[in-house]
Design the sequence.
C-alpha cells in the first residue's frame, strides 16, 4: 500500500510558505487524560559542573611548583622526565589537551577585544600561572608541565645542532605566529593556535588528515631537532622566552663555579648553552659599526614589515567567515558562480539585506588592513630586536644557559663534572658516618 | 646582617627586579582585571536553534568521535503527526518503522502510538549522532519541535569549537555555563 505522500508534502510546503521559522503548523493535540508530555532528555540534566576546570588549574599550579623544584632545587633530570610524562598523561591524554596555556592566550585577547566575552577563571589561571612561575623560576613549565613539550621530549632520540643563524631566524616565527593569532582573535575570525595545534589531535585520537600529517611531521623532525614546535612555532613560548629573561632564579648548568671544562658544550639539544666570549675581543670599532647599522635598519625592517603585512591583508581577511560569505554571495549575485553553499543559503534564509552584509565585510576588511599592518611592524620589530641582540656583545666568562632559550629540561646537569663531584661528596659523608 | 646595608644593590640587579615586579603585577593584575568585573562567569558552547540550518556538520566536525551534539525534542511544540516529516523520509513506502521508511540513520527516534491519530516521537540519545536529518525534516514541514543542542556532559568545551568553526549559519554561540541550553519554547 502506497500513500500519496509526495503531493501532500508539496501542499504542506506551499501552505506553510517554505521557510517560516518554527511556527505551529500542526496544533499540538489535546490528549485524553492520562497522557503526560515526556521530558526532553537533556532538560533534566544539571548545569555543567565547572569543578573540573578548577581541579585542572590546581594540578597545573602543583605541577609548576614541582617542576620548578625539580629543575632548580633538586636538579633532577629523572624527576623532570617523570613529571613530564605525568603531565602528558594528565593534561594531554586524560584532559585532551584543552584548555592549555598556549591556547589561553587567545581567551585573554578575546576578553580584551570583545566586551561580551567573559574570561573564564580557568583560562585566566592557565594563562597567568606559567608566566608567573617563569618570571621567578625560568621555563620549568616547558620542561615538564606542557603536554605539547613532553610529547616532543619523548621522541627526541638523536639531536643534531641547528646552526645558530638558522635557529635565530626560525626563532622569529613564534612572534609572527603570536601576532597573527592575536590579530585573528581581535577581528573575531578564529582561534588560530587551537585550530592548528599539531598534537591535540593525537591526544584525542581525532585529528583530520592534514593535522595528522602536520603533527607526525613535527614528531619525525623532533627525533633529530630538539622540540621543533616549542622552539620555532610555539607562540606562548615566545612570551615565556621574553619573561624568562627577567627570571629571579633560573637553570644554571653547574651547581657551583664553572670550571670551563667544555664538557657541557654539546649537551643542550636546544642550542641554549652560550659559550664564553673569546679571550681576545674583536675590534671595538667593528662592533660599534654593526650596532649602528642594526639600529638604522630597525625602522627600515619595521617599514618593510608594514608593507608586507598590508599586502597580506586579503589573505588574512579570508579567514573571517563574514568576509568569505560576502565574497561568495557577491559572486552568486553577479552570476559568476553557479549554485549556492550552505553558508549563502543560511544567509538568505535570515532575510538580511545584502548591502548590510557587504558593509559589514567592508568594515572588517578595513580592520584587517590596519591589523595586518601593525602585525607587519611587530614582525619587523622582532627581527630588528634579534639582529640587535646578535650585534650587542656581552662578556661571558662561563658556560651559561641562555635564559630565553633554556627549556629547563635538565639534560646538561649530568654533563657537569662539578655536579657529579658534588653528588659524590653529598653521599660520602653519610656512608662514612660511624 | 650589616652586609646588606653596606653593599649597594647592583644597578643591573635592581633594574631586573623592578622589571620583574612590574611584569608580575601586569600579568597577575591584568588577568584578575579581565576575570573580576564580569560576573556572568564561564561560557560554554551552544547551538541557537533559531539559526541552525541542520546542515549536518555537527555530526562530523566534533573532535569527539561521537558528536557532543544531539537532537532534543520539545514535546510541547510537537504536533504528534502520524506522518512525521522528521521521522519518515520524504516518500516512505509505508508509515511503518521499517528502516527504508525512516530518516534517522541510526534509528534513534522511537515512534510510539499514543491515541488515534497521534504518535509520540522520543529520541534515544545513546543512538543519536547529531546529524540533524530529522531536524531538517521537522523544520521544513512540521512544527520545528526537533532541534540540535550541545549535550554538556559530553562536550569538552574546547577553546575553539571545531563545529563552530565549520558552522555555515553562525548558530554556535557561547552561553553562560549556569544556563547551558537554548531551549525552544512554544510561541
Sequence:
Amino acid at each position: 500500500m502506497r500513500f500519496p505522500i509526495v503531493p501532500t508534502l508539496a501542499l504542506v510546503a506551499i501552505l506553510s510558505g517554505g521557510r517560516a521559522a518554527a511556527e505551529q503548523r500542526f496544533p499540538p493535540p489535546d490528549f485524553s487524560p492520562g497522557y503526560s508530555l515526556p521530558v526532553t532528555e537533556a532538560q533534566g540534566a544539571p548545569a555543567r559542573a565547572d569543578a573540573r576546570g578548577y581541579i585542572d588549574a590546581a594540578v597545573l599550579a602543583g605541577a609548576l611548583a614541582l617542576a620548578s623544584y625539580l629543575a632548580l632545587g633538586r636538579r633532577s633530570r629523572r624527576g623532570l622526565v617523570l613529571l613530564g610524562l605525568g603531565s602528558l598523561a594528565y593534561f594531554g591524554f586524560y584532559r585532551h589537551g584543552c584548555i592549555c596555556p598556549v591556547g589561553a592566550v587567545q581567551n585573554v585577547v578575546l576578553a580584551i577585544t570583545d566586551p561580551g566575552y567573559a574570561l573564564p577563571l580557568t583560562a585566566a589561571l592557565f594563562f597567568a600561572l606559567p608566566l608567573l612561575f617563569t618570571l621567578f623560576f625560568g621555563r620549568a613549565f616547558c620542561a615538564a608541565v606542557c603536554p605539547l613539550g613532553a610529547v616532543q621530549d619523548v621522541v627526541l632520540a638523536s639531536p643534531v645542532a641547528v646552526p645558530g643563524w638558522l635557529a635565530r631566524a626560525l626563532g622569529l616565527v613564534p612572534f609572527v605566529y603570536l601576532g597573527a593569532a592575536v590579530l585573528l582573535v581581535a577581528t573575531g575570525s578564529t582561534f588560530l593556535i587551537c585550530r592548528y595545534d599539531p598534537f591535540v589531535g593525537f591526544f584525542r585520537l581525532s585529528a583530520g588528515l592534514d593535522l595528522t600529517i602536520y603533527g607526525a611531521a613535527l614528531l619525525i623532525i623532533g627525533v633529530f631537532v630538539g622540540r621543533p614546535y616549542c622552539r620555532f612555532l610555539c607562540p606562548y613560548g615566545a612570551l615565556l622566552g621574553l619573561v624568562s629573561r627577567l627570571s629571579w632564579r633560573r637553570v644554571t648548568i653547574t651547581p657551583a663555579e664553572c670550571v670551563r671544562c667544555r664538557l657541557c658544550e654539546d649537551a643542550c639539544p636546544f642550542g641554549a648553552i652560550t659559550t664564553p666570549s673569546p679571550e681576545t675581543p674583536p675590534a671595538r670599532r667593528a662592533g660599534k659599526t654593526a650596532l649602528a647599522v642594526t639600529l638604522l635598519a630597525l625602522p627600515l625592517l619595521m617599514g618593510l614589515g608594514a608593507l608586507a603585512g598590508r599586502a597580506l591583508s586579503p589573505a588574512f581577511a579570508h579567514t573571517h567567515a563574514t568576509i568569505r560569505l560576502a565574497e561568495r554571495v557577491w559572486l552568486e549575485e553577479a552570476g559568476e558562480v553557479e549554485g549556492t553553499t550552505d553558508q549563502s543559503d543560511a544567509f538568505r534564509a535570515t532575510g538580511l539585506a545584502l548591502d548590510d552584509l557587504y558593509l559589514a565585510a567592508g568594515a572588517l576588511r578595513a580592520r584587517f588592513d590596519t591589523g595586518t599592518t601593525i602585525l607587519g611592524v611587530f614582525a619587523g620589530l622582532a627581527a630588528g630586536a634579534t639582529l640587535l641582540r646578535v650585534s650587542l656583545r656581552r662578556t661571558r666568562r662561563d658556560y651559561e644557559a641562555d635564559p630565553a632559550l633554556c627549556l629547563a629540561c635538565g639534560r646538561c646537569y649530568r654533563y657537569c663534572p662539578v655536579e657529579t663531584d658534588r653528588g659524590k661528596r653529598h653521599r660520602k659523608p653519610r656512608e662514612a658516618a660511624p | 646582617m650589616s652586609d646588606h646595608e653596606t653593599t649597594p644593590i647592583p644597578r643591573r640587579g635592581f633594574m631586573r627586579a623592578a622589571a620583574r615586579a612590574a611584569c608580575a603585577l601586569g600579568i597577575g593584575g591584568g588577568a584578575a582585571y579581565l576575570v573580576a568585573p564580569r560576573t556572568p562567569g564561564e561560557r560554554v558552547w551552544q547551538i541557537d536553534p533559531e539559526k541552525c540550518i541542520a546542515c549536518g556538520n555537527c555530526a562530523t566536525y566534533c573532535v569527539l568521535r561521537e558528536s557532543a551534539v544531539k537532537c532534543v525534542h520539545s514535546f510541547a511544540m510537537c504536533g504528534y503527526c502520524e506522518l512525521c516529516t522528521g521521522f519518515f523520509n520524504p516518500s516512505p513506502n509505508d508509515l511503518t518503522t521499517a528502516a527504508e521508511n525512516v530518516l534517522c540513520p541510526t534509528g534513534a527516534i522511537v515512534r510510539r502510538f499514543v491515541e488515534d491519530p497521534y504518535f509520540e516521537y522520543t529520541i534515544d540519545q545513546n543512538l543519536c549522532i547529531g546529524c540533524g536529518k530529522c531536524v531538517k525534516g521537522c523544520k521544513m514541514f512540521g512544527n520545528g519541535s526537533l532541534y540540535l543542542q550541545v549535550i554538556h556532559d559530553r562536550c569538552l568545551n574546547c577553546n575553539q569549537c571545531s563545529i563552530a568553526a565549520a558552522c555555515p549559519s553562525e548558530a554556535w554561540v557561547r552561553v553562560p555555563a549556569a544556563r547551558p541550553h537554548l531551549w525552544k519554547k512554544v510561541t
About this structure: The first helix of chain A runs from residue 5 to 16.
